[in-house]
Amino acid sequence: MEGLIQNETKLSLRVDEDSKATEFRLFSTAPPHMRAFHLAWVSLFSCFFSTFAIPPLIPVIRDNLNLTDSDIGNAGIASFCGSIISRLLMGPVCDLFGPRLASSALSILTAPIVFATSLASSPRVFILLRFLIGFSIGNFVSNQFWMSSMFSGNVVGLANGFAAGWANVGSGATQLLMPLIYSYITSLGVTSFTAWRIAFILPASLQLVTACIVLYYGQDLPDGNCNHFRKVAEDPSPKDSFLRILCLGLKNYRGWILALTYGFCFGVELTVDNIIAQYFYDRFNLKIQTAGAIAASFGLANFLSRPIGGVISDEMGRRYGIKGRLWSLWVVQTMAGILCVLLGRVNSLSASFMVMCGFSLFVQAASGLTFGVVPFVSKRSLGVIAGMTGSGGTIGAVVTQLLLFSGFTPFSKETGISVMGLMIIICTLPVTLLYFPQWGGMFCGPSMDSSSINSQEDYYSLQ
C-alpha cells in the first residue's frame, strides 16, 4: 500500500511515512507503539482507580466525618474542578514535553495526596483532598495524545478507544474492589472508621508504581522522546512557543464543539460514577457491597463499550470519511440521552439495572467516538485540542453535578438523572455544525482541493 513502510529492524508494526502504526495488535507489547498503548492505559487506570476509590465508601466515610449531602455533592464537584485545571494544562505540556514525562510527573505528584486521604478529619479537609486527587485525571489528555502520536488515522479511533476504555475500567474496578477491601480489613477486627482509611494504601501505591514504570519504559514518539528531538534540532521553530500552540488550538471552533459534546458523554459518565452506588444504596435499600457491585458494572462496561466506539468511528471513517465519524457520534450519543431519561423513570431494581447497562454502553461508546474525531482537528495543537475536549468532559460533570445532584438542587436523584438525559440530547446537536474544508461535514462534502491543503497543516491533521 502506498505510503506504508515496513521497517523490520526497528519497528514491529507496519507504519506510515510519519512512523505511526497503521495496524493495532491488542495483545502485542512490541515497542514503541504497542508498549506505549499498554503503558498509557495502565497509568490512567491507576488514576481512575484513585479518583473513584472514595464514592463506594461514602456511606462509611460520611458517618465518620459527619458529612452532609451538601458536603458530598461539593466534594464531587471539587474533584471535577481539579480535573478541569489539570486537563487544560496537560494539553500544552504534552505538546512541549511529550506524554511520557507529563503523565509520570502528574501521577507522582498526586500519589501522596491519595495516601493523605487516610488522614482526613473534617468535611473541609475531605473536600480539599478530593479537589487535589482530581488533578490525576489530567492524565487522560496524555493518554489520548500518546495514542494519536503513535497510531495513524485509519486505526487512531481504535487505539484511543481501547486506551481510554480500558483505563476507565478503573472507575468500575474501584467501585467493586474498595468495598471488598474494606470488608476484608474489618473482618480482621479493625474498626470501621479505621478500615476505610487503611484501604486507601492500595490505590495510592498502584498510582506511584505505574508512574515509575511509564517514566522508565515509555517513549513519546515512534522515533524517540520529545527531549531528544529538542536537543538535536539546529533551528528551533517558532511553532514550538507555548502561546502559539495554545492560540492555534483555542481559535479552532471544532475543539469547542467537541468539548461540549464530550461534556455530555464522558462528563455524564463521571457524574454517574460519583452517584450511582449511593443511588442504588439509598433507593433500593441495598447492602454497600451489592450497591458497589452494581455501580461497578457501569464503569467496567468501558472494557468493551468505549473501544467499540473507536471501532465504529474508524469503520465509518473508512467507508464514509469524516461524515461517517460525525453521524455515528451524533446517533450513539443521542441514544445515550434517551436511555438516561428512561433510567430516571423506571422504578424497579431489575429494570433500573438493565437500563443502566444499556445507557453505559451508549454513553461510553460516544466518548470513544468523540476521540475518533479529535485527532483530525489540529495537527500542531493536538495536545491543546485533546486538553480542551478532555476538560469539557469534566466541566460537563461539574455542571450536571452542581445543577442536578448537589445540595443546591430541588430535584430528586431520579428526576435529576432524567433531566441529565435531556441535556445530553440537546448538547449533542452542535455536532451537526462541525465542518472540515478538506473532508466535509455531516451534510456536505469538502470545499478545499488537495493543492491547498498544505497551507493548512498547522490546523488540520493530514493522514
UniProtKB/TrEMBL annotation:
<feature type="domain" description="Major facilitator superfamily (MFS) profile">
    <location>
        <begin position="36"/>
        <end position="433"/>
    </location>
</feature>
<dbReference type="Pfam" id="PF07690">
    <property type="entry name" value="MFS_1"/>
</dbReference>
<feature type="transmembrane region" description="Helical">
    <location>
        <begin position="197"/>
        <end position="217"/>
    </location>
</feature>
<keyword id="KW-0534">Nitrate assimilation</keyword>
<dbReference type="InterPro" id="IPR036259">
    <property type="entry name" value="MFS_trans_sf"/>
</dbReference>
<dbReference type="GO" id="GO:0015112">
    <property type="term" value="F:nitrate transmembrane transporter activity"/>
</dbReference>
<feature type="transmembrane region" description="Helical">
    <location>
        <begin position="384"/>
        <end position="405"/>
    </location>
</feature>
<comment type="similarity">
    <text>Belongs to the major facilitator superfamily. Nitrate/nitrite porter (TC 2.A.1.8) family.</text>
</comment>
<dbReference type="GO" id="GO:0042128">
    <property type="term" value="P:nitrate assimilation"/>
</dbReference>
<keyword id="KW-0472">Membrane</keyword>
<dbReference type="InterPro" id="IPR005829">
    <property type="entry name" value="Sugar_transporter_CS"/>
</dbReference>
<feature type="transmembrane region" description="Helical">
    <location>
        <begin position="326"/>
        <end position="346"/>
    </location>
</feature>
<dbReference type="GO" id="GO:0012505">
    <property type="term" value="C:endomembrane system"/>
</dbReference>
<dbReference type="GO" id="GO:0016020">
    <property type="term" value="C:membrane"/>
</dbReference>
<feature type="transmembrane region" description="Helical">
    <location>
        <begin position="288"/>
        <end position="305"/>
    </location>
</feature>
<feature type="transmembrane region" description="Helical">
    <location>
        <begin position="127"/>
        <end position="146"/>
    </location>
</feature>
<dbReference type="InterPro" id="IPR044772">
    <property type="entry name" value="NO3_transporter"/>
</dbReference>
<feature type="transmembrane region" description="Helical">
    <location>
        <begin position="101"/>
        <end position="120"/>
    </location>
</feature>
<dbReference type="InterPro" id="IPR020846">
    <property type="entry name" value="MFS_dom"/>
</dbReference>
<protein>
    <recommendedName>
        <fullName>Major facilitator superfamily (MFS) profile domain-containing protein</fullName>
    </recommendedName>
</protein>
<feature type="transmembrane region" description="Helical">
    <location>
        <begin position="352"/>
        <end position="377"/>
    </location>
</feature>
<feature type="transmembrane region" description="Helical">
    <location>
        <begin position="166"/>
        <end position="185"/>
    </location>
</feature>
<keyword id="KW-0812">Transmembrane</keyword>
<feature type="transmembrane region" description="Helical">
    <location>
        <begin position="36"/>
        <end position="60"/>
    </location>
</feature>
<dbReference type="InterPro" id="IPR011701">
    <property type="entry name" value="MFS"/>
</dbReference>
<keyword id="KW-1133">Transmembrane helix</keyword>
<feature type="transmembrane region" description="Helical">
    <location>
        <begin position="417"/>
        <end position="436"/>
    </location>
</feature>
